[in-house]
Amino acid sequence: MSTLLHIDSSPLGEASISRHLTSEFVQNWKAANPNGKVITRDLNASNLAPIDAAWIGAVYTPEEARTAAQNNRIALSDTLIAELFAADEFVLGVPMHNFGVPSVLKLWIDQVARVNKTFSYATGAPVGLLQHKTAHVFVASGGVYDAGTTMASYNFVEPYLRTVFGFLGVTDISFLNAGGASALTYGKIDRQSFLQPHIESIRSQFQPA
Ligand SMILES: Cc1cc2nc3c(=O)[nH]c(=O)nc-3n(C[C@H](O)[C@H](O)[C@H](O)COP(=O)(O)O)c2cc1C
């Protein structure tokens, strides 16, 4: 049985482009995996806090020496990491905010990037411990950052996520960029026309070759 971890990070709920695209992916994935399991993680409803000294102290205390308070302090991190290990595939909805990932996604990354849990330096070189997993990332942005455009170098979402996921062992990662969403804001295109090519691109991934 396959398991998909569905992560959203847009604060815009129903109005969100990236949430619409992850939802489309999940529907298609469920149809293709009738016995599969979907774990849903909404980062805007997960009470993610910035890591602090108590959190860092807890994760660098050997497990057998941790106090109950320390275990409690990193319980959410443990849960989020368990979700990553439970899944074979990840689908992430990511709005570009100020050329990077939204703050809740950065908070999540800080919770799941943990030494000897999701990466290791045991051999001297870094080794990602999330092996044999696939990530699909749907990025929505107001502007267009495609390769070759004048704005391409402003896109810190894709290189950052490739680096972080690769560091954790997830090198099989693909990006679908829904760029130019500002045309919606300015009424230059209707929502359905904007979404349609991206929806078709997602559906085509599930069609038999
Ligand atoms: C706080 C904030 C910051 C944004 N920063 C950028 C940006 O740096 N570049 C860009 O192209 N669009 C930016 N946008 C536009 C969003 O990327 C765009 O509205 C996109 O559709 C957001 O994804 P969502 O609809 O899934 O929330 C920003 C929007 C907000 C609300």
Describe how the helices and strands are arranged.
Layout (H helix, E strand, L loop, with lengths): L2 E6 L8 H16 L4 E6 L10 H7 L8 H6 L1 H12 L2 E7 L7 H10 L6 E2 L6 E2 L5 E7 L16 H11 L4 E7 L3 H4 L5 H15 L4
Parallel strand pairs: 1-2, 1-3, 3-6, 6-7
Antiparallel strand pairs: 4-5
Helix pairs in contact: 1-8
The protein binds flavin mononucleotide.
Give the key terms.
single chain, 5-stranded parallel β-sheet, binds flavin mononucleotide, two-stranded antiparallel ribbon, 8 helices, alpha/beta, 209 residues, Rossmann fold
Could you explain the architecture of this structure?
With 209 residues, the chain is α/β, with parallel strands linked by helices. It has a single domain (3-205), classed as Rossmann fold (3-Layer(aba) Sandwich), CATH 3.40.50.360. It contains 8 helices and 7 strands. It has helices at 17-32, 53-59, 68-73, 75-86, 103-112, 157-167, 182-185, 191-205; strands spanning 3-8, 37-42, 89-95, 119-120, 127-128, 134-140, 172-178. The chain has a 5-stranded parallel sheet with strand order 2-1-3-6-7, sandwiched between helices. It has a two-stranded antiparallel ribbon with strand order 4-5. The structure holds flavin mononucleotide. Flavin mononucleotide is lined by residues 10, 12, 16-19, 95-99, 140-143, 181.
